[in-house]
Amino acid sequence: MKQHIIWRQPLAVLTALIIFYLVLFYWDNKYQTPPPYGRAGVLSLHGEMLSRSKPIYMIDGWLLTDARVADKPTYIGEYSNLQRGNPGVPPHGQARYQMTLRYEGAPRIVSIDFPQLSSWYAIFVDEACLAKGSGNAQITFLLTEGDHDLCVDTFSEQGYYSGMYFPPALGTEQTLQRVRNVQGFAYALAFLLPLALAMFTLFLWRTGGRISRFFALLCCFYALYMFRYFVFLFSLPVASSWYMVQSLALYGLCFCVVQITALTSGAADNTAWRWMRRILVALPVFLLLLCLLMPAVSWAVFVHSGLTDVYYIYTFACTVFFVMKSVGAKAWENRFALAGCLIFGAGLVSNLVSANRFEPIYFYWQFEWCGLLLVVLFGTMMVLRSRRILQENDALTNHLEEQVQRRTEEVTRLLEERKAFFSDMAHDLKAPVFATQSFIEAIRSIGIGVDAELQGYLDQAEAKQQEMARRLQGAFYP
């Protein structure tokens, strides 16, 4: 019965993740949108299609021309670069994507958004150049009845992506602007929330230990990765080489996930983790070197793609290893480590299964959702951890206050007893002291046998008696 209770929560989390990614695949996926679909270089449109709440995603029906093919039918997202799965040919170069827009209906002003064009581009409609540059692109033109030739020329010399990899969106300006607004808000939230959590964690860097430091790094790496949206949105000059920063951020994020899992499991100092950590650092270094070789070596892109998947799988295997090591431990952080392992695994499987068949309309890719869920999960763990530390500090403070109060009462009682003791002693000493003065005065008044030597002794005795009386009076009767 106890074993059944232990596995109930992980199964519930895994079921929720599977349902979540299935909903994403069928609801927020450009490849699951309804017709029209392009075919053989033609996309047929009519006026009612442009009145939808979602844009028309121009995925199918393009004709590709590059150094090796001419008018090859393809769909956008089929290949990430011009290598098209052949490691022996260059992944970069010049390409042209063509499509005929065949429209029936009243003339309308329409727009087309081209997201994340890593290559240099020039976009033509009916041989008129409407946009050129790099990064995101947008064109607006009057769509009249008949055929209109749409042509996208790309040219790349470096980077992981080349050509056009992300499907364009066609619709009215209002429809596209609504999508842009949702995307902008979503990515701004995904960028700012981790930074806020990282700032929150700063004051825990000394008291929170290594877990808080690696959580802050996790947030920073995720925010850096999500900043890519704004790099392409504003067509920043670093857009063509941002893939290296993006890769570095992903590697750092994966390393932090494994490190946090190792720390929560209590196995971060064993020999196995030392060897795992070396591989987790060495493999990204090699992958970044491959990024530098991409412009010159044709197979670098192909190897980089395969080793990146290997790195993600290896990272997930490390998290599974540490979660299994922590099974049976009583540390309350273990449940967060197990949930993080499930989130990471579900995101990895979803990303591999839906490769080239998923691209979000409004929100994030599977790995981006995975990173955000991990940030929220470990952020919740850090909040609870901080609250536990504060509660322990409050309990310790209250205990110290009680001890101080108890000690103060004991000291006060001791002082009162001391005062009473010395008061009684003074009372007992006062009688013989003053009796001594009476005897001295009596001897002097009689004067019999009082010579100079005895008078000196009497003076000394009287001085000592007066000094003792004065001390008794000052010490016990202030």
Structure, explained:
59% of the residues lie in helices and 15% in strands. The chain has 478 residues and is an alpha+beta fold. Strands 1, 2, 3, 4, 5, 6, 7, 8 and 9 form a 9-stranded mixed sheet that branches. A hairpin with a 2-residue loop joins β6 and β7. α2 (173-202) runs antiparallel to α3, α3 (209-226) runs antiparallel to α9 and α5 packs antiparallel against α8. The relative contact order is 0.09.
Task: Name its key features.
478 residues, alpha+beta, Rhopdopsin 7-helix transmembrane proteins, Jelly Rolls, 3 domains, nine-stranded mixed sheet, 10 helices
Give the overall shape, derived from the CA principal axes: rod-shaped
Please give the share of residues in helix: 55-70%
What share of residues are in beta strands?
15-25%
The beta-strand count equals: 9
Domain module tally: 3
Poorly predicted runs of 5 or more residues: 1-6
The pLDDT mean sits at 84
Distance between the termini: 77 Å
Instruction: Tell me the major beta sheet.
Output: 9 strands, mixed
* SSE order: HEEEEEEEEEHHHHHHHHH
| Cα Rg | 41 Å
CATH topology of the largest domain, what is it called? Answer: Rhopdopsin 7-helix transmembrane proteins
Briefly summarize what is shown.
By secondary structure, the chain is an alpha+beta fold.
Task: Map the helices and strands.
Elements: H1 2-27, E1 42-46, E2 56-57, E3 62-65, E4 72-74, E5 93-104, E6 108-125, E7 128-143, E8 146-156, E9 169-171, H2 173-202, H3 209-226, H4 228-233, H5 242-265, H6 271-293, H7 299-325, H8 334-353, H9 366-446, H10 452-476
Parallel strand pairs: 1-5
Antiparallel strand pairs: 2-9, 3-4, 3-5, 5-8, 6-7, 6-8, 6-9
